[in-house]
Every structure is written in structure tokens, then in C-alpha cells.
Amino acid sequence: MKFREGPKEPDILSLVFKTMVWYDMAAPGETVVVGVSGGVDSVSLLDILARLKPRFALRLVIAHVHHGLRREEGEREFRFVEALASRYKLPFEAMRVDASGYGKGGNVQARARRYRIRFFEEVAARWGAARIATGHHRDDHLETLLMQLLRGTGGLIGIPPVREGRFIRPLIEIPRSGIREYAREAGLDYCEDSSNQKRTYLRNRIRQELIPWIRREANPAFGDALLRFSAISREEGQWLDRLAEEAVERALCRTGPRGETHLRRDLLEGYPRALQRRVLRESYRRLAGSTQGLSHVHLEGICDALQRPGGRVHKQFSLPRGIRAFLEYDEVCLSRRDLWKAAPYEVSLIPGEKRRIPEAGMVLLAESVSCGGVPPRGGEDRECVFLDVGPTPGNLVVRNARAGDRFRPYGLGGEKKIKDFFIDRKIPRSMRNRIAILEIGGKIAWVVGQAVDDRFKVTEETRSMLRVQALPFGREDGTPGRRIRQIKR
After folding, report:
1. Last residue of a domain, one of 302, 335, 368
2. End-to-end CA distance of the chain, in Å?
3. DSSP secondary-structure letter at 317?
């Protein structure tokens, strides 16, 4: 069978086979979940894959979703695909969706698509399928390109032949007319979806009105031109993506315990804006597993903040899939958790005993020391201090900062809010609520690792001292770190 469009069109089976090989859509012996709605595209896809199955040694599983949006039509489609699976002697997996679960307003089609994709992935997991095949074709690709262009979503990607290495589109090179011709000549029955004619959907208006107008009034070969342009953009985009992966590795400071990504802000700010967007997109993909839903608008907001004059400010952005981006003094962090919120904690500290502070990631040890009138001397350190606690030191409490906290940083000569102190020190907001504060007798004595309160400094008159050591997890045995900090007048 030949296509109607263009001379010397290849046989459709041969073209689909070459497409699958070219884009590495299936390996010999793999299981493929085939999404079948009952329409001409998915029914033709199933028939073609069934014919090509011996050449790839594939195992096929049919998956169908009754979305509950067109009840009578949807029920006919459900029974039709069920019978189709029996005719092809293939496993049949189906899901019925309660239409009330879509809620009111918004993009119902997008929510239905999420239900469908999630179900296909569940079926793939049950059957150990490496691939999920859908019936998207050349005209779907063209329509999607125009939708992206009109919406300004950034990048003319359209529908890629393979997405995330799992979702494959074997018909992506075949036009709609070719698929309908194949179905007619193969004698395939299929269902007509009435929603494809509704003008309420942008895709339908593009298909029924915009594309015919462009071909009639501007360029009869418009489709080929746009697809060529998209292919060039995709190839250049793939090259830029490789550069972005390298740039991510250069900018990567660390990864957090839940997979969050911490990037050096200075390097990110120095990248060209085009590379900034791709670095952020790649960092998001590594955390979310996909860039689905991440729009150009999301990325531009972060890039604008990175290039804003007037110094580095703290700012956060909400991204799809529950991910947030945090801009701090030295880092840009992508995380699923709110790094700027930490639960309050408060524990007692008993001299002579080690106290683990998981929230601060450290162990504290306090010991009473007699100085005999000679205060300790030496350099400074963030891990250990000597404090003048007097003959009756009072209760020792370790907690995190609270609203309104004030203390007298040693050497400053006055009182300061903890919040202002953190800002002056350029301490990232993600760390502020986790930093431990040692309180003695109801007064802040040490902002651990940062500053001692002037009221607890060691002087020539000091007789009773408290030595407090803060060790990061992993060095609880007291392995020496930096020099001991010794505060004296």
C-alpha cells in the first residue's frame, strides 16, 4: 500500500519498522504496552505492531482507559477494545475513571491525560514492559508544534518520537491520511470520537481551521517546512542539552538527603541565559524524573531573579510536581521539601554527657572546667568555646532560633536581633532555623558555630568555665577539627 501524499512513498509497515529501528523504539524480546482508545490511530497502531511483532519478537499488552467523560461513547469504546484484545489474543488491561474526579474548571483534557499516562505506567510495571506505545502521528506532531508556538511555551519540540526512553510513537512519521488509508485497505473497524469535532478545544481549531488556512493562503508545503525547522531545533537542542549536563556538573555543590540539588549561584549567574534555562531544566529533570509541566514561564522567573541588579536576594519559586527552587546567597537549590521551614526543637544539655541534635546535624558536649585565674589563650574556632558561667550556671538548653531572639555578639558592643545577625553574616535562609543556639539560665550564650554572647566571655576574673564542643555527625568521637576557640577580654 502507498500513501496518497508524495511520489514513491514507502510501504507503511516498512516505514514504521524503519522508524522503530532508527529511534531505537524496541529491543528484541521486549514487552510493549499499547495504548488503545478505539480510534483509528490506536487501532492501526495495534494492527501494525501485531504484524511487526515477529520481526522484533515483541510481547504486546493492550491498555485502555474509560475516562467517563462521554459515557455512552466511552462504554462502546471500552467493549470494542476489549473485543479487539480477544481477536488479537492479547492481554487486556483497562481502567474506568469516575468523571467526578476531574473536578470543575481548568483543563479537563490535561487531567485525563495524566490519569491515562499514570495507568499506562502501572500496567507497564505489572507486566515488566520496557516501552509504552501510543498512536501519535505526523499531524499530531505538527498540531502540537503550532500549539507550542502560539502559547510561547519555549522550544519547538512537538511530540518527540521517544520520550524518557519509554514512551514510543511508532506512527510519528505517518500522516493522518496515510493511517486512515491503511485502516481502510486493511479492513479495520474503529470508533469515531465525537470530541475530535468540538471547536472548544484549541487543537481541533488548529486542525480544522488554522492549518488549512495556512496551506491555502501562505504555503502549501507548510507542514513539511515546520517539521524540518522542528527537527533542526531538536538536534540543536540535544547538543545544548549535553552542554547543560556538563554545566550542571560544574555548578553542582552537593545533593541533599532527599535528592535536592544545590548549585553554585555564582557559576549559574555567569552562564548565558540560554544555558541557565537548560541547567535549571536539567536539574529539575534529575529531581522530578521528567520535565513534563515545567514551562518557559517557570524558568524565566528564576533567570530574571538571577540577573536582577542590587545584590543577591533570597527568593523561592513554586514549580510543578511539588518542587521548589530556592535562591540563596551562594546557592540555588531545587528541592521537594520546604528548605526555609524547620520544626522548632529544644533539648536539655547536661554537662558531661553528649547530646545529639539531629536537626542541626551535630553532637554537643559540655564540660565544666576550672581555669585557676588564667583564661585560655589561642586562636579561634567554630567547633569549641569556653564560656564564663559563674558559680551557678543555670539550666543548659539547646534550641533553634525564635522570632524576636536577641543577644550581644562578642566584640560588637551592643545588642542585636538573631535575624539581623544571620542576615549580616549572609547565612542562607535554609540554615537559619537549623542552627543550634545554646541558652544558659534563660540567656543566649552561644549561637553555635557563629558567635558567643558578650555576657559569657572569659575574663581575668573568670573562675568557673564551661567548655562546649560541637562536633558534626561522623566526628562524635572527638576527632580534632579546627583549633579551639578561646574568648578572652
Report:
1. 335
2. 95
3. E
The count of structural domains within the chain is 3
Residue appearing with cell numbers 540539588:
261
**Domain of residue 118, residue span:** 12-218
Closest C-alpha among 184, 174, 186 to residue 50: 186
**Alpha helix ranges (H) inside 335-428:** 418-424
**Mean pLDDT in consecutive groups of 10 residues from the start of the chain, 489 residues:** 40 93 94 96 96 94 88 88 96 85 63 88 96 96 89 75 93 94 94 75 87 91 89 87 92 82 92 93 90 85 85 84 91 90 86 85 84 50 80 82 89 86 88 89 90 86 83 59 36
Cβ pair 464, 391 in contact under 8 A: yes
pTM comes to 0.66
Radius of gyration of the chain from Cα atoms? 32
Determine the number of helices (DSSP H) and then strands (DSSP E) in the chain.
14, 22
Long-range contacts of 310-313 (CB under 8 A, 24+ apart): 312/265
Same domain, 137 and 80: yes
Sheet with 437-440, edge to edge strand ranges: 346-348, 396-399, 437-440, 443-447, 451-452
Q: 449 is written with which cell numbers? A: 558555630
